Amino acid sequence: MKRISIIAFVLMGNLMFAQRDLTIQEATMGQYRSFYPKSIFNAQWQSNDKITHLNSEYTALTSRKSKDNWAPKELISLEDLKTAIKTRLPKASLDVTRFPNYTWKNDHILSFQISNKSQTYFLDYDINSKAIIRDMNIDVNAEDPIVSRNQDYIAWLKDNNIVVTNSKGQNIDITQDNTIDFLNGSKDTHRNEFGINQGMWWSPKQDQLLYYRKDQSMVSDYPLVDYSTRVATVKNIKYPMAGMANEQVTLVIHDINTGKKVTLQTGEPLDQFLTMVTWDPTGNYVYVGVLNRGQNHLKLNKYNAATGAFESTLLEEEANTYTEPSEGLLFNPKNDKEFVYMTELEGYRQAYLYNTDGKLLKKLGFKDVVVTDMLGFDTDAKHIYYIGTDNNGLDRMLYKVNLKKATTEKITTASGTHNIVLNPSKSIFLDQFSNVETPNKTSIVEVNSKEKSVSISEAENPYEDIIDMPKMELLTITAADGKTPLNARIIYPTNFDENKKYPVMLYVYGGPHAQLIQNNWLGGSSLFFQYMAQKGYIVFTVDNRGSAYRGKDFEHIIHRQLGQVEMADQLKGIDYLKSQNFVDSGKIGVYGWSFGGFMTTTLSIHHPEIFKVGVAGGPVMDWKYYEIMYGERYMDTPQENPEGYTKTSLVNKAVELENPLLIIHGAQDPVVVQQHSMAFVEACIKAGKQVDYFLYPTHEHNVIGTDRIHLNQKIADYFFLHLAPARESN
């Protein structure tokens, strides 16, 4: 076992101040409120040498200029904005209590949105005249509005349909489907998998709207019961369970001027997935990633935007496990025949430069770096910039790629997490940096002269002299394969004494798309875990194989056998704990949510000799009840992989439950439907096994808002009841 010498913080008691433990309220809400480190909010580049951000009270917009060495100066006050709004819209009754989020349209006009009870307003403010110079408004209940670049149109969703509002305030009904069976323009297409985060795209000329049209008439209705009415009512959602009928999606182009519609001829089978949707810069073509239902064969296809006809397949990917497209194409601003394509085909999600004939021009990847955020081209299109991993996946760094030479330079150097905002020319960037020892440090840095860095904000430790925070360490352990390094995190009890024995809370997720351990402030942990450590628990976490940002082989090992490799790696973490003299090996519990709830139940059932208590929130109990898009990617269908589904099902293993297990579920959960936990509870009843169950009637997959205080108290109380730390002797 290798230990990384990163210690989060050991807050020394100051004799002048009495430090205390967190309250359950602070442990739940304080991380993003009272204890949130000082920072810069909503930073936006006004021009290449000017940056703006909101002040800490959200009462003004602050400007910083290169010529002033980035010193702060108020640019727009909230009162300025309110006066301008009142002048332009005297009858709108807009109560603006804080400076809104904004974007710069150019160096003197900023755009923002505000709402009253009936309308949402899209406004442009001129900083020179201190006036609102443009306004449009749509229904306040409009969903997913997308504004055309010329701001002549706003496309938005009303129920299942698309409406476009023009600059004259006229509403145009683009679609008119009055049934749940058809959904238009929704970002929820394919249940948000494959990187889908929008369902409508304006053409480069802003005169056509491309959108998803989803036929879900063949998908089963799934009932969610609303208990708040006098007599409980049922809301049906469409839920495509693994192995059953899938939604059928097409892409449609609507011409705003003529009203003509063209459907892209994406072909059959109709239950395939359509993603990576990208307009060609000329507006003449649309590129679509067409993925088969088995999710192991991807085609990047080109379609004629005028006719919808298929033009060509530029490239294909096939895999023995699965291929997972996650973003559209990034076109070269200086050459509309070249684009950047993202794939993990060669082991890590990295960038490749192609032309529109499908020819690979350059491989732009770097070592084992996983690209997490593509930041785009510089002004001359000689370089691209992205955020990528480092330090075994723990860090986030800024990288610069020379397109001609296909060479990569790591721009940031300090180990930790760098949140970057590049200026338009990509010559200067705002760097908001943190690691386990640094709450937040914000600097402005020149890309080509990194020594020219100006610190503009540095946060003090928000807990110092207030909260007696536990010690935390990031570790490296070895996976069950005997060779793969795994990141781990341990939080020690307050006033830790290595000569004492402590109970353990293992916090687990373990599934794809998630990373619990990061080199940032608090190490990726929640304040709730600090709270539990203050109560006398060691809180331990491992990012096992199958989790995110470590490459294809690291994740794909779980294919067709969810929970098996993950369990083996979690047990290696337990082996590490048991090797420590300060661990009470007879008092180890486990807690997790969603995939973590699945892992909690898996560990509890398979290893009752280790895990004496478990709390499983929103747990998958049988993958046949889970959705097609995520579930079939990792497990194939129940028909194709019956052994895998049987092996990973926890419902048929309820008879093996020995120790206390608390299952928590949201009654309105549309992700892991309540049928999972109900099936497991019923199996426990049939097997004569006692299990504890708690339902949050109004919550979906996660318990949010102030009700989360209740949730965290319930979890803590369950550990206090069944896995209490030893009492101190007098």
> What does the overall shape look like?
globular
Low-confidence stretches: 1-16
Sheet having the most strands: 9 strands, mixed
CATH class of one domain: Alpha Beta
Strands of the biggest beta sheet: in what spatial order?
A: 1-37-38-40-39-41-42-43-44
**Rg, Å, rounded:** 27 Å
How would you state the average pLDDT, rounded? 96
CA distance, first residue to last residue? 37 Å
GO biological process, one term: proteolysis
GO molecular function, one term: serine-type peptidase activity
Protein name: Dipeptidyl-peptidase-4
Pfam families: DPPIV_N (PF00930), Peptidase_S9 (PF00326)
Keywords:
globular, 14% helix, disordered N terminus, Rossmann fold, 9-stranded mixed sheet
Notes on the structure:
By secondary structure, this protein is mainly beta. It has a domain of 252 residues: 3-Layer(aba) Sandwich (Rossmann fold). Helices cover 14% and strands 39% of the residues. A 9-stranded mixed beta sheet has the order 1-37-38-40-39-41-42-43-44, sandwiched between helices. Strands 14, 15, 16, 19 and 20 form a 5-stranded antiparallel beta sheet that branches. Helix 3 links the parallel strand 39 and strand 40. The protein is globular and about 70 Å long. The N terminus is likely disordered.
